[in-house]
Amino acid sequence: MTKISMDESDEELITRLRDGESDVTDYIMNKYKDMVRSKAASMYILGADKDDLIQEGMIGLFKAVRDYDAGRDASFRTFADLCVSRQMYTAIQASNRKKHAPLNSYISLYSKKGDYDEDKEFSLDQILEDMKDTDPESMMIDKENTRDIEEFIENGLSEFEQSVLELHMTGMSYVEIARVLGKDEKSTDNALFRLKNKIRKYINKNSDK
């Protein structure tokens, strides 16, 4: 059994793994399993089974261990987070589930926010925090209006903007979203700005009716 010190960095462990110490893989997989679970709790809002997401996340983590290159990539933690997110999101996109499951019942669905903090919660009003000027508490949105918003997102946003919105709703920054989608940061930030404006205008327009 390989002896591993708590003081060793991930990068040092990967080097040992490349040198043939295969037990290091199990150590790293166990070390980051809570990160995978936290990520699954966050991305569950996109409409996939949580256990399936955890399984996909562990696959992504294994790929990170297998593919990490200290001379090319950022820290292993950052690289692993990216690989796990991509694996989960690809699985969600490949499923036949409704694309906008978070919106299909009522506007105040809750999801976990933050990479490792499972105590924080936020509503869709807060997710879209600066998308409208009205006080969220003064704006009651029933199921019919929610379906209208859902339809607007489906038809009024580009496919790229929809993907950015979905990942933004999990608590990801535009930098993280860009990495998951394989896009540059500027175009992702611009897409986030555009979609916020579109949704804000739509909500404001319909709230005046």
How would you describe the overall organization of this protein?
The chain is elongated, with a radius of gyration of 19 Å. The protein is built from 10 helices and 2 strands; from the N terminus they run αααααββααααα. Helix content is 60%, strand content 3%. A two-stranded antiparallel sheet has the order 1-2. It is mainly α. Helix 4 (50-67) crosses helix 5. The termini are far apart. Residues 96-127 and 129-143 have low confidence and may be disordered. It folds into 2 domains: 10-94, Orthogonal Bundle (Rna Polymerase Sigma Factor, Chain: A), CATH 1.10.1740.10; 101-207, no CATH class. The chain has helices at 10-18, 23-31, 33-43, 50-67, 76-94, 124-127, 143-156, 159-168, 174-181, 185-207, and strands at 110-112, 121-123.
- How many strand units? 2
Structural class: mainly alpha
Q: Count the DSSP helices.
A: 10
Percent in strands? under 5%
Overall mean pLDDT: 75
Give the overall form. Answer: elongated
**Uncertain runs with pLDDT below 50, 5 residues or more?**
96-127, 129-143
Strand line-up across the major sheet: 1-2
Radius of gyration: 19 Å
> How is the biggest beta sheet arranged?
2 strands, antiparallel
What sequence of helices (H) and strands (E) makes up the elements?
A: HHHHHEEHHHHH
Provide the number of structural domains.
2
Question: Helical residue percent?
Answer: 55-70%
N-C termini distance: 69 Å
